[in-house]
Every structure is written in C-alpha cells, then in structure tokens.
Amino acid sequence: MRVVITGAGTGIGRATALRFAREGAHVLAVGRRLEPLAALGRGIEPLAADVTTDVDAIARAAGPVDVLVNNAATALGQPLGRITAEAAHAQVAVNLLAPLLLTQAVDLRKGGTVINVSTSTGGRGWPGRSVYAATKAGLESLTRSLALELAPRHVRVNAVAPGAIATPIADHLPPDELAALRAWQVARTPLGRIGTPEEVAEVIAHLAAAPFTTGVVLPVDGGAAVGA
Q1: I need a labelling partner for 178 at 20 to 30 A (CA). Which of 66, 95, 106, 129 fits?
Q2: Catalytic residue among 62, 113, 132, 138
Q3: Who contacts 200 (Cβ-Cβ below 8 Å, separation ≥6)?
C-alpha cells in the first residue's frame, strides 16, 4: 500500500505516518523541513516540499497512490480589523487549495482513498481565527463534492474533524494565550481532556479501510460537536 501524508513532520501527520508504517505501508512523508521527516524511521520516505508550490513534484515522487492524507495546515489568529491579505491568502493556499490541487495531481489507484484533515470549528465558528475556520469549512464542502466526483473512479473521499488535540499548531502563541486556549478547548469538550495525535491517526486508518464509506466528515473531538 502506498500512502502519501502532508504535514507529516509533527502532530497528526507524524502519528498517521507511523500508524500506516506499522501496518507495512510505504509512506511518503511530506513536510517543509527534512530533519523531522528523516527521523520517522523505516518504511517512511521523507520529502521536503511545500504543498503550495511543489504539488507536481509531490505527485511525481508519490507515483500510484492508495491513500492520500491532506493534513498540512496553518492557523493564524487575527481578529477582524487586523486580518492581512497576506495571512488570509496563506491560509487559503495551505488549508484549501493545496488539498484540492494535490488530490487532482496524484495518480489515485482504483479503490484508493483521500482523507482530508479538517477541524471541529469547520462546522461552527472561531472568533479571532475566522479565516482558518472558513478554510476548514471549505475543505469539508470540497470533501463532499470530490466524493461524488471521484466515486465513478472507485475512489473514496472522507475527512476527519479533530477537536482539541495536542499538536504544535498553536505553539507560536505566547504561553499565557496558549494556556487560555487549551482551557477554553477543554471546557468545551465533554470528555474533559485534550486528545492525542495518535487517536486521530486511528480514525484516519479506519476510514482508509472502510470500503463503503465516502463523503463523510467524521468528528474526532471528545464530543465537542454534540455538546456545543
């Protein structure tokens, strides 16, 4: 089985790469920095590439693909009134356009699957991070549209929508802001804790092995979606 994972150097992408490699899959791990990718170990081929500019190079390196996991993302906190065009365009490029263009570019085998990584805020709103939430809502809509478009080719398209997960995506925040964010997330999670990247990776692997499931956006959020 040939698996391609973007944003594979840390967090959910890293956990997913290791999960598939344990099953014996050949994993192409894509990320901006080579060092964390090269440290992933046996069965994992590292590729330092930018998903916004190197789509064709990634597709060439991938070859025929059984599983494509569009995981790379960027989240920039900017409240209305301070949103810059540069930051907005960057989030759209990574979070929405890159999954679309990479899905289009790779050679998906018959019976293959695409799994997009969204967020629990994609179906709601996130004050101060409106562009990020909007790109993830767009990714969920894209998931449903591509599921219909690729079904005649026997290619399935699904998404996971993680809630509060212990990843480095918010580590750029000052410590007090990060602590406040984590407290806000836990307060809105019925299971009362932050999830792990490995828990999301398990659901991604499950969707990859579910042959009659397509067009689904599956929450992995400790109940946040139903508890909101």
Answers
A1: 95
A2: 132
A3: 12, 15, 16, 117, 160, 162, 165, 220
Residue 19 among the catalytic residues? no
Report pLDDT for 128. 63
CA gap 137, 75 in Å, rounded: 13
The confidence score (pLDDT) of residue 84 equals: 93
pLDDT at res. 77: 75
Q: Which amino acid is at 174?
A: P
- Class of residue 168 by CB neighbours under 10 A (exposed 0-12, middle 13-18, buried 19+): exposed
* Beta-carbon-side half-sphere exposure of residue 221 (alpha carbons within 13 Å): 24
- Backbone torsions φ then ψ of 186, nearest 5 degrees: -65, -40
Q: Rounded CA gap, 195 and 36, in Å?
A: 22
Dist CA 58 CA 52 (whole Å)? 11
CB 203 within 8 A of CB 218: yes
Here the tokens at position 227 are 């508890």
State the DSSP code for 228: -
Contacts of 212 (CB under 8 A, 6+ apart): none
Q: Give the rounded distance of the alpha carbon of 156 from its chain centre.
A: 16
Which pLDDT score, from 0 to 100, does residue 125 have? Answer: 67
Positions of the chain with pLDDT under 70: 122-128, 169-173, 228
Both structure tokens of 113: 């699957």
Q: Is 168 helix (H, G, I), strand (E, B) or coil?
A: helix
Three-state secondary-structure class, residue 54: coil
Residues 6+ apart with CB under 8 A from 9: 29, 31, 32, 33, 36, 37
